[in-house]
Amino acid sequence: MTRPAELADVCLAISSFHNDSAVIELIARVTSDGDHPFGSILVVDSLGSGAMPEAIRTRGWPRVDYVCFDENLGSAGNLAKRLELAAKTPCRFVYAVNHDGSVDVDVIHKLREVGATDARIAAAYPLRRMTGSGGAYDITGVLPVPVRSLRVKKPPRSRTLDVYWSSSNGALYSLEPSRRGLLPWADLWMGWEDLGYGWLLRQRGYRQLLVCTARSDDAYEYRRLSSGTWLSDKPSWYSYYYARNLLLAARRSHGPLLLQATVLGRVLSEFAVIAALRSEKRARLGFLSAGLRDALRGRSGKWRLP
Fold this sequence. Notes:
By secondary structure, the protein is of the alpha/beta class.
C-alpha cells in the first residue's frame, strides 16, 4: 500500500489505559492490508499488560511505536505525552484519539487539508454528532467559555468555524506548538485538559478551526432524563476534577476577569444541577466542593479517586 502524501506527515497517536483489545482492534482496522497511511502510529499506555507490544510484534505492523509508563498518566498526562513524543517524529501533525475514538481516513484527510492552509492553525477539529444526546452537532467551542451545551440540529453551512477549543478525542494538532514547548497541562490529570490547551493556544496567537465538512459520530456519555433533558453521565468522583480543573485552567490561561468569573459561575451552577437532577447527590456535592476548595489552593495532580 502506498501512503497518501496527505497523511504521510500525520502521526496517529492513541491513548490507552487497560484498553488492550480496543487499541489492538483499532490498529488492525487501519492496517487491514498490512500497511497504514500514516507517517507513524504511536500508542501511549499506562500500567500496560504487555499484550499490545506483543500484538505489534507478532502481527508485524510497520511504523508502530508503543510507549508504556509505570503510572496512571490520566487523560491529561497521556495527551501531553502523546504530543511531546509525536513532536520527536518527522511528522507535521498528530491525530490524537482515545481507544474508543474514530479513525476515519477521509475525515483526517479533510482536517489535514484545512490544517495545512496556515502555519498559525494549531488544531483542526471534526464536527461531532453527539449520538448519545439526540444526534445534534456540537459547536460549544465557538464560545470563549464552556457553556453547558451548544448544539445545532443541522451542520453549519460554513466550511470552518473559528473555535476556542474542542475535544482532543479526534483532534488534528499541528506539532509546531509542541516543538516550541507548548503542551497540555499534564498535572490536571483528568478533565478539561483539551479546553485548557485550547485556551493556551489561543493566548499564544494560534488559530483553531472546527471543520464542518469533517464529521464524526461521538457516543459521549449522556443520558436522557424523563423531562427530556440530556445530562453527561460521568461517575460521581468526576465532579471533583470538573470543578478543580476548570478553575485551574481559567487561572492558568490568564484570561480576562469576565471569563474567570463566568467559569466560576459555571462551577457554582453545577451545585444546583446536582441537587435538582443528578443521582448520588450527596457524593457528587462532596466531590464538587472538594474540587472547588483544591482549585482555590492551587492543588493539582491525581486525587484519591478513582
